[in-house]
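Q: Protein A?
A:
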Amino acid sequence: MDQTPPRTHPDMWVDPADDPRDAGEPPSRGERAVVLDYLRVYRLTFEMKLEGLDAEQLARRSVPPSELSLLGLLRHLAKVEHSWCRRVVQRDLDLPQLFARQEDFDGAVADDEVVAAAWEAWRREVAHAEQVYAAASFDDLGLHPGGELELRDVLVHLVEEYARHCGHADLLRECIDGRTGQ
């Protein structure tokens, strides 16, 4: 018997009172805080979209002929985090890519070890990026040390990347088990 209490708003992903994206904090202020908060929320939203699925469900290509799967998106976003933070911001250009071209999607197979490795890579890269961006030595998001690219460009690109893929995740998840999200 399911012991999960009924939700107040069954049409929503989670009840507003239980939504971990809204910790009851006042709104962020300032460009840096706002952009980092949007990125945090989108990362958490993406993680919530994949919650509770097994390897077969995560690897399922739910919208043929597309190669998109939730597992592929997870691997892709781990690669995106890795590339932008380590290779672009930290200028570690000799560091190999996390996944070779298209391997993030093509290698997304229904295997528990592949799923565990994808979650580990994504969480590792997100944690690393959060540390790097939090420790950046400038208050605005201007030119980062050693580069010609402004940190705001990187962070806004990451927000855009997560926003787009959260939309994909909504559609893929709905095809898997009918859940739709806010």
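Q: Protein B?
A:
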Amino acid sequence: MRGAPEDIVREALTSGDPLPGTTGFAGAVDGVLVRDVLGREPLFVGTDPDNGDWSHDLADLTAPQLFPAGRVLGTGELREAWTLPDPEPFDDRATAVEHVREAVETSVDAVETDGLAIAFSGGVDSALLAARLDAPLYVAGFPESHDVEAARSAADLLDRELRVVELTHDAIERAVPEIAAATGRTDAMSVQIALPLYLTAERVAADGFDRLALGQGADELFGGYAKVEKAPEDPRVEADTVRGAQREVIDTLPDQLPRDVLALRGAGVEPVTPLLHDRVVSVALRLDDQMLVDGETRKWALRQAALGSLPEAIAMRDKKAAQYGSLAARELDRLARQAGYKRRMDDHVGQYIDSLL
């Protein structure tokens, strides 16, 4: 079992509690396979999982399939063990902010800093980690990238030293097949997202750290996406409310998180994700539309809660997704075009990635 003690998982199976106080788990307990409700820990099965054909590592299996989140498998029967709750929202915004603050601060402050580094982009999510944990800060990006500039300014405001992982075309070309091998994914979006994570983790491991703290999950839990802000007008979501759209993007985590976890482990570090702790998830599920998005301010409740730890300039700062803020996506596209894969071609970046494998 990875991610949590067996007794906690056993009790969660007995009680049906989907959020028993962990940051995720997956593996075998009492002869059955389980994976937590948000899929925070990867688990893969082969053709005969009842007889040991399963693993946390893709490379151990000949035909791996991602085990579904919130499920239990034993004696050939796959059944649902947990679903995310749908609690009533907080009565008022001040109460919501106080609960968010308590959950976030408790989860971050519980992180052990031995062997720890922090992936730091200068946004509110990673800055909450930087403000409360004594660990070195790393940012990855091309020299002119938004993330490097934002991380430098935020590190100055926090009076912290920043280590910059400067991305290069050579590093991207080398990392692409390594990411594909680690994650089992070769589509353009997955590789673009994984590139800055992988190259940051690689540098962190080379510097002697074996754990990397990230602000993962905050965008999904607290309303950080434009498609959530613009619900129901945005065609990328089906929900007719902001809260419904939040739930839609939370539901994508079980498929997305294994990519990041496997990329980081492939680079030699273990991810640490305090903003994905069950106590934070429980609070986030109780936010209503205006607590998630206030006007044009996404992640409103989280930003308000962060003001207890961060300067307002950081707490209220907008940030681009890592693949764009680091310019990894732009430069991967540039490399594809330089190699002859033009934008008029179908999935030109994906074709270029295949050529590197």
